[in-house]
Amino acid sequence: MEYQILHPSVTDGVMVLTISRPQALNALNSLFFTEMDHLLSHLPQEVKIMVITGEGKAFVAGADISEMVDKSQAEGEAFSLAGQAVFRKIEQLSIPVIAAVNGYALGGGCELAMACDFRIASTLATFGQPEVNLGIIPGYAGTQRMSRLIGKGNALYLMMTATMISADEALRMGLVQKVVAPELLMEETLKIAKTILSKGPTATKLVKEVVNLGLAMDFDAASKQEAQRFGSLFKNEGEVGMRAFLEKRKPTW
Ligand code: CAA
């Protein structure tokens, strides 16, 4: 499939995926979801980690309002479910996915960033869930991810007031993990990607799987599936890493 909005580029196992519809501040339209769904289902084997970013002054300024305005109730619900399914696919991808947030991450844009494993932000980034300004609510599971990520009080504050916050404020709330100068955003994000790639590859996959599965379980069941995967690394990648430590050398995975 020829992509119009997505611009993937792969170097040394890292796919940098740029969302490029700058004339509409990268607002997410149905073509974006078609392309994203296709890309997620056809990721080349060589891709070991994905970085999502936006072109221009926005990461993503939300769902495309012009596509939503005329929808019926049933169409609105279907639109929400379809977007949720694609964001869930991102979240459940077996490889790490990092959001490199270069600018506006509003509405569906903030929801996309939250579907990634973690977020590195430029000082120019702005975050918010301004849907109530439009008389709607977040529809790509942002209500659920945000309250889990930054707590109910912070999430309801942002969603009820539509306040747009700076990258530093997002850092304080735990919505992003690191804030860097705009010119260093990609360099810093790629450095983090490289760090992850140097670790036990199965372990980094499993840690994501265990956290995501566990969040949907009660504590005891969640801990049990952690133990099961912990065990699966023994006589396996775990032995390679632990033996290398004891022999004071770097592991070869
Ligand atoms: N949908 C469609 N078009 C959008 C858009 C969006 N979410 N955000 C920006 N655009 C378009 C503008 O309409 C404008 O197009 P024209 O040049 O054709 O007029 C272009 O992008 C540039 O935008 P602005 O002129 O508004 O740029 P600005 O710098 O003055 O303002 C902004 C930037 C504060 C981000 C402002 O564009 C804005 O408030 N955008 C909407 C943000 C928003 O409400 N997002 C939530 C959407 S709803 C949602 O996401 C629901 C969901 O969860 C499923």
Could you report the average pLDDT, rounded to the nearest whole number?
Answer: 98
The CATH homologous superfamily of the largest domain is termed 2-enoyl-CoA Hydratase, Chain A, domain 1
List ligands, each type once. acetoacetyl-coenzyme A
Helix/strand class: alpha/beta
Query: pLDDT under 50 segments (min length 5)?
Result: none
Q: Which strand-content bin applies to the residues?
A: 15-25%
Radius of gyration: 19 Å
Strand order of the largest sheet: 1-2-3-5-7-10
- Terminal-residue CA separation: 34 Å
The figure for the number of domains is: 2
What does this structure look like?
- By secondary structure, the protein is of the alpha/beta class.
- The chain is built from eleven helices and ten strands.
- Helix 4 crosses helix 5 and helix 5 crosses helix 6.
- The model has no long low-confidence stretch (mean pLDDT 98).
- Acetoacetyl-coenzyme A binds next to helix 2, strand 6 and helix 4.
Quick structural summary:
By secondary structure, the protein is of the alpha/beta class. Helix content is 48%, strand content 17%.
Which descriptors apply to this entry?
253 residues, alpha/beta, 2-enoyl-CoA Hydratase, Chain A, domain 1, Lyase 2-enoyl-coa Hydratase, Chain  A, domain 2, 2 domains, six-stranded mixed β-sheet, four-stranded mixed β-sheet, 48% helix, 17% strand, binds acetoacetyl-coenzyme A, Enoyl-CoA_hydra/iso
